[in-house]
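Re: that chain you flagged

S.,

Sorry for the slow reply, it's been a week of failed gels. I finally had a moment to sit down with the sequence you sent. For the record, here it is as I used it:
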Amino acid sequence: NTDRGRGSGVIVTDQGHIVTNEHVIRGAKKIRIITSENISYSASIVGVDSITDIALIKSSYIGEALTFSDSSKVKIGDIVLAIGNPFGVGQTLTQGIISRTNSGHITENPLDEFLQSDAAINPGNSGGAMVNLSGNLIGINTMNLSIGGGSDGIGLAVPSNLVKKITEQIIKYGRVVRGYVGLSALDTSDGVTISNVMEDGPAYSSGLKTNDVIMSIDNTKITHIQQVVKIVASLEVNQEIDVTIKRDGNLINSIIKVAAMPEAHI
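Prediction finished late last night. Pasting the structure tokens below so you have them in one place:
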């Protein structure tokens, strides 16, 4: 089998850790990286996070890593450069401006948080760096939403702050450890109603039950399920959250201690 895939990546530690997109290395039997000096190294997968489409691979390359910038300071109108290897033609640089700073829910994934720009991102740019004019990393180019399939669409990048958090967790745990409360809920005419409570999970231990209506989490009024998903996903393990629910017309306060999401739920 000689099928080959190509993509771009970013050296994020001086120990040869490289971030790319999970879809770039998905199904790969063998991975090689080629540096801008045209030197080739074999690499192995350290861990992946399909939710954010980020993968971390490790090679024997030792050298300077790209500096992370604080992506929360990125503003609409900032000039950005997208670096990549589109169509396998060699390293390219395209320029654009940031057109949106939190393009959540472009996809069906409730956790998507993207920087959006009009910098041309073509196949092969995936996993490459989006940098500011100082050359510091503000995001990882992840995909291009385009009607024609070319670079005429929206260029998206996973923000560097999120990439940094994911990278640190994969290095530490081999996977991304997300907060887990052990319940599922859905939008109903009453509000966000709990449809299932996992036995012996954190929500179960705190007394939450099926058909309870979630009114607020940590003083944030809850009106739709997307809020719950986003809040839960941002929780740290061992964090305590204050949940108010309505049961039989009564308001009940409950403290849930967040656990680590079991691997089976990933």
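What I noticed first: The two ends are 30 Å apart (CA to CA).

Talk soon,
D.
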